[in-house]
Amino acid sequence: MRADRFALPLRIVVVDPVPGVAMALQRDGDRPEVVGYAESTGRDLIFELEVAVEGTLPDGRPRLLGPFVNGPPRERFIYLCVGHYAGQMEADWAGRMKVPIGGISWALIERLPAGGRIEGRVSGRGRGGGPALATVAILPPGWRYG
Known about the structure:
The chain has one domain (5-145): Immunoglobulin-like (Sandwich), CATH 2.60.40. The radius of gyration is 15 Å and the shape is globular. The chain is built from one helix and eleven strands, in the order ββββββββαβββ. By secondary structure, it is mainly β. The mean pLDDT is 91. The protein has one helix at residues 106-110; strands at 5-15, 22-27, 33-39, 45-56, 62-65, 69-70, 77-83, 94-100, 118-123, 134-135, 144-145.
């Protein structure tokens, strides 16, 4: 039997971010707030957060909520702010990366080991070599245990 509402720990790993460009999680509310600021040194950036799971969507997927969750129920995502948007005013870049979380399934959640996290990896670079902006894909093999 599933709990009515519980916290689900997530990890988003930004693989190969552009060195020197800051990134941060965006927490929404009355006023968006940037948290988890990290400036790339060429190594992967790791962002850890929790989302709430509350019930099931009509299509059978878990309903994900919380201050880091954005978008309509069937197209949920997490924003990662880049450059100016992350508070790095001297950066040449300004924008957000949209990390989709709709691929997180009940099967994955229910097999999560105690104390574990569900992890998704995304590329930190766009096609032109600058930071990835807009919607990014979760890298293979998709959401997994981290």
